[in-house]
Specification:
Elements lengths: L1 H17 L6 E7 L7 E8 L4 E12 L2 E15 L4 E16 L5 E17 L4 E13 L6 E13 L1
Length: 158
């Protein structure tokens, strides 16, 4: 009986350690510099108690280049301390560009992306995060290139 109690306590302890607080939804800005896209509108949606989806929309108009990029990431989230989580994810996206510097070239591109970061959930409805997103893609704007982006995210939780 004592062994059953100890095993039950151990299993409950492991379960409670993995419990975390992923917001049902967040929306805000991701402030980075990935391939010149800079600020992105960012939305996160809880899928279950340990996973979520993140979608980001970025755009750029500078140096005679106009571009728009949409990406989606599937993320795994793990608790660290009270309010802190770390996460990792994979995904990809697509975009379009127009470059008047190179004979008016334009086109579309696709890319694969990863993500790793840390976040803090405040007691009020705000989340702050810092993450690293490597991307690799092809065709035109991203042709055979690899880039990384470090960004600060500020999101409203609802």
């Amino acid at each position: 009986m004592k062994n059953l109690f100890v095993c039950s306590l151990f299993i409950f302890g492991i379960y409670s350690m993995s419990a975390q607080d992923i917001s049902d939804n967040t929306i805000g800005l991701r402030l980075g510099s990935n391939k010149g896209f800079g600020t992105e509108i960012s939305y996160q949606m809880k899928l279950n108690s340990e996973n979520r989806a993140e979608f980001n929309l970025g755009w750029r108009t500078s140096n005679n280049v106009s571009a728009m990029k949409l990406n989606g990431l599937y993320q795994w989230v793990w608790p660290l301390e009270q309010g802190f989580n770390w996460y990792a994810g994979v995904g990809g996206g697509l975009g379009t560009y127009s470059n008047s510097n190179i004979n008016g070239s334009s086109g579309t591109f696709i890319f694969a992306a990863g993500d790793i970061g840390i976040e803090y959930n405040f007691d009020f409805p705000l989340q702050a995060s810092l993450d690293l997103r490597p991307e690799i893609g092809g065709n035109g704007y991203f042709e055979n290139s690899f880039g990384t982006d470090i960004a600060l995210g500020i999101r409203y939780k609802f």
